[in-house]
Amino acid sequence: MYGKDKPYVSYSAITLWRQSKDRYRKRYYELERGYTSTEMEFGSQVSRTLETNACSDDVLARVPRYSVMEQELEVEIDGIRVRGFLDSFDPVKKRFIEYKSGHLSSVGEAPWTQAKVEKHMQLPFYSLLIQEIYGEVDDKCHHVWIETQFKKKEKEFDGHVLTTTSRELELTGGMEIFERTITQEQRDVMRELIVTTAKEIEEDYRKYLSTV
Predict the structure, then answer these.
(1) CB 208 within 8 A of CB 151
(2) DSSP string, 89-147
(3) Number of domains in the chain
(4) Mean pLDDT of the chain
(5) 167 is in which domain, residue-wise?
(6) 106 falls within a domain
(7) pTM metric for this prediction
């Protein structure tokens, strides 16, 4: 076990463990509710819209997608149960797409660039799981960034129209599609990371249970 009622590891769990063991323990051992931001909630809303294909918005209607949305992946790797969900999956060509939404920084920098996509470990994680389950995987995958912004609000005060920024997000119409090639070496590195991290968590959780 990798936490209370958690018999598998996921990419988010692996990432959290490597970022902060204390936060992992609070989230999965003590079941504290994780942090949720406006951006995260809006991103979930975008994902649900794409999944149900209820894309009345022109922006989301232009987002590339494959025949299967929210494909669950579950497989054992060296005796470790691993689980993930693909945003969009082509079961014939064994290709996948990952979606991320986000807004420009205060200095106009995009949250995703080709260089950042090349380092994004979630992509080789999914690529490995597909290969383990189906025996093959297309080395090429796509990462789609959907641009958001905080809505502007106008109100009249003392004869003047004032513009303020709300905490409500909206799509801007901007979108960028990145392509990445995942190598076998990168999948092998991810396999080692999964196994090493899972064993660390499993051992740590046993120690935790002995103290409660």
Answers:
(1) no
(2) EETTTTEEEEEEEEE--TTS--S--HHHHHH-THHHHHHHHHHHHHS---SEEEEEEEE
(3) 1
(4) 88
(5) 38-197
(6) yes
(7) 0.86
